[in-house]
Design brief:
The protein is α+β, with helices and mostly antiparallel strands. 68% of the residues lie in helices and 8% in strands. Helix 8 runs antiparallel to helix 9. The radius of gyration is 31 Å and the shape is elongated.
Length: 709
């Protein structure tokens, strides 16, 4: 109570401090770097990641791109190569002229090499950068290369992908926030009981979102997915807390002598309810931190921090705003459009066996779709971009003109003699889908001494410790075919050199597939176990956690099963994150109803009356909460051109509605069915069954009708 009274007393100071904190928050948000490379989140101990580090350390080569130039004479291409070599952070440009200009007779070069790098209308060159794939300086270099070469140049590779992704995200992100705010505002104007209060909510929540985004500065950087989703998710999830405080304050005003006392009691009640409610949401986000693919940790930390800040803002900044603006807020109140739900809840409990049958029938259908959706996810981040993006066009050109869909790199011990290396190359070129292996041996041809090459050319493909080889493949990144190809190449590679490494985009993607498959199981298990334990402690029951989680998990299975039936393929990260987010964010709906059911039952009401009262008193809160989450995410889902953002927001929007429907229709039916079991396995309910005094029942039924999550 002291805390609540302090907030009421120092409300002006709290608002001043919050306003001042917006300055460092905005500065921190602007200064926080955003990472657009998904491969950066692979565990550092993987060979593919170590190999990328060695490539940069020994060769000074980090990022790599294949560039296609169309309809340009060889002499102009040679001049273009010279210009590209002058671009800052371009380490090497490898093209036919790189060798010819160094006085190597054309007849000494294998014809196959020339043919592979040239067609009738196009030529291809490899560009190495001295910086990492997603470094800002690499993206600047990609933009310079495109500007120098003009419309005849097409740049592929991960650096081109992250450059296009960054540019698209920066254009779309302000619109994301605007749409989330607009749709959430419309939902609150329709569903709440005041015209001004939604604007106060948005101002309070917006300040906490800025604090969350600004404090990300101390993490060093965040992923573009985290940046795009965190504000939208924080708005949607923490809106419930504001609604609870507002309703509680209005209830207390009817019985308290003055508004200060009413707000102090409302804050006290809100702290007790909202802290308990937010724990499940924080636990859901925290579970993401156990992913070895560290994008989960990135999203989990930022979102858990956002929920905690949302709770703090709800019991400090928002009460202060409401007290300062109490006059206008009271004058602009209106009747809520959500009608009384007593008759509706009675009908639901009357026909509860029907919903039990629906529950049983939905389980196999939802599980089948859920399993199929998980099998049909895609890992190629190029699929996230619109088809008219420069990177996508370049990849199409590479595939059409040169039949190259991916490029791998080999690092082989420099001391390995040429003869076994040639044997290794020959074996590798027999692997399905391998077009050719390019290295010193393949450039020189059989029988040509290595000494004929100038040192400057050797340095492109050899260091003191390693030799570098490029393998061009006809198979696309993250496809089953390329993964089988990589296994075959690795088998051959290790036969000749145990220390050798196969690196590049496709090998990293293969590692990512294996890593995230394990992560999906781990995160699901941890989130369910953590939320199970929280529900068991909150409800003091052994049976209720099973019932509540079963309802929300069914909603998750339906939500993630629908893409299979709709013929949609999801980005790999979506099912992992959404299953955890939906569980943590919407299990509160079930907890709210169950808590009221318990209170009614323990007060002596019978099974049907308890469930009916619990449903009628909580349904308006569930609708407001579910529609708030839907509104904040649906607009982004419809607008975004980035499939990973669009998919995750659509899943969150649909998940809110599906969870809401499952809690409203299926949870009451399960409570009716399992009432006796619940009474026996819940602390304090064991003696239920005796007829209580009528006054007690009426008292229990009348109380708390205005509760929110």
């Amino acid at each position: 109570m002291r805390f609540a009274q302090a907030v009421v007393k120092h409300r002006v100071l709290i608002l001043l401090v919050a306003a001042v904190l917006m300055i460092p928050a905005v500065l921190g948000m602007v200064a926080t770097r955003v990472n657009y490379d998904m491969l950066d989140y692979l565990p550092a101990d993987m060979d593919t990641v170590k190999g990328q580090d060695l490539l940069l350390e020994d060769f000074g080569k980090g990022a790599f791109s294949l560039i296609i130039v169309e309809n340009m004479p060889d002499k102009e291409v040679a001049r273009l190569v010279e210009k590209l070599e002058q671009v800052e952070h371009v380490e090497t440009v490898l093209w036919y002229s790189s060798l010819l200009d160094l006085s190597i007779p054309k007849e000494l070069l294998p014809d196959a090499i020339y043919r592979e790098f040239n067609t009738e209308n196009a030529t291809m060159m490899a560009v190495f950068f001295d910086s990492s794939t997603s470094a800002d300086i690499t993206m600047d270099a990609i933009r310079q290369i495109r500007a120098i070469a003009g419309n005849q140049c097409f740049v592929s590779g991960m650096s081109a992908l992250v450059t296009d992704l960054k540019d698209l995200c920066e254009r779309e992100e302000p619109v994301y926030v605007g749409l989330a705010v607009l749709f959430a505002l419309l939902a609150m104007l329709l569903l709440l009981d005041g015209w001004l209060v939604p604007f106060v909510f948005l101002l309070s929540i917006g300040m906490m979102i800025l604090l969350n985004l600004g404090s990300n500065y101390f993490l060093g950087e965040i992923s573009y997915i985290t940046k795009a989703l965190s504000a939208v998710l924080q708005l949607a999830v923490t809106m419930d807390y504001s609604i609870f405080l507002w309703h509680s304050y209005n209830e207390q005003r009817r019985t308290c002598e003055n508004r200060n006392e009413a707000m102090a009691l409302a804050i006290q009640k809100t702290v007790a309810s909202v802290v308990g409610s937010s724990v499940t949401t924080v636990a859901g986000f925290a579970a993401l931190c156990f992913m070895s693919f560290t994008l989960g940790r990135d999203l989990g930390i930022v979102m858990a921090k956002g929920v905690i800040l949302g709770v703090i803002g709800c019991v400090t900044v928002l009460p202060s705003m409401i007290l300062v603006l109490d006059g206008p807020l009271q004058k602009t109140k209106h009747k809520s459009i959500i009608p009384g739900m007593e008759k509706f809840s009675q009908r639901v409990t009357r026909v509860f066996p029907v919903f039990l049958v629906i529950f049983v029938l939905l389980i196999p259908t939802a599980l089948y779709g859920y399993d199929k959706t998980n099998d049909e996810v895609y890992y190629d981040m190029g699929q996230c971009l619109p088809q008219d993006m420069e990177y996508v066009i370049a990849n199409s050109k590479l595939s059409e003109e040169f039949s190259i869909a991916s490029t791998h790199m080999l690092l082989v011990d420099a001391s390995l003699p040429s003869k076994p290396v040639r044997s290794m190359i020959n074996e590798m070129e027999q692997v399905d889908g391998v077009k050719y292996v390019l290295g010193l041996e393949s450039v020189l041809g059989a029988g040509v001494p290595e000494e004929i090459l100038p040192q400057s050319v050797k340095e492109i493909l050899q260091s003191d410790r390693w030799k570098l080889y490029l393998i061009n493949s006809e198979y696309a990144v993250a496809s089953d075919a390329v993964n089988l190809q990589l296994e075959a190449l690795n088998t051959i590679l290790k036969k000749y050199d145990e220390t050798a490494m196969l690196i590049g985009e496709a090998p990293c993607m293969k590692d990512m597939i294996e890593t995230t498959d394990r992560d999906f199981q781990v995160v699901n298990a941890i989130s369910i176990a953590a939320i199970f334990l929280i529900i068991a402690l909150v409800e003091k029951s052994l049976s209720l956690p099973f019932i509540l989680i079963a309802v929300i998990e069914l909603a998750i299975f339906i939500n993630l099963g629908l893409p299979h039936y709709l013929g949609q393929s999801l980005p790999f990260i979506a099912p992992i994150c959404i299953s955890t987010i939906q569980l943590g964010a919407t299990v509160d709906y079930a907890i709210l109803m169950t808590t009221r059911y318990k209170a009614e039952r323990m007060a002596g009401a019978d099974r049907r009356q308890s469930v009916s009262t619990a449903l009628s008193s909580s349904i308006s809160s569930i609708i407001v909460s579910g529609m708030g989450l839907f509104a904040a995410t649906f607009g982004v889902a419809v607008y975004s051109d980035i499939d990973i953002i669009r998919s995750m927001c659509m899943l969150m929007a649909r998940g809110a509605v599906v969870s809401m429907l499952c809690v409203v229709f299926i949870l009451p039916s399960l409570l009716m069915l399992c009432d006796r079991l619940i009474c026996k396995t819940t602390f304090g309910m064991g003696a239920i069954g005796k007829e209580p005094p009528k006054q007690k029942i009426l008292s229990a039924s009348a109380g708390g009708s205005g509760e929110n999550i």
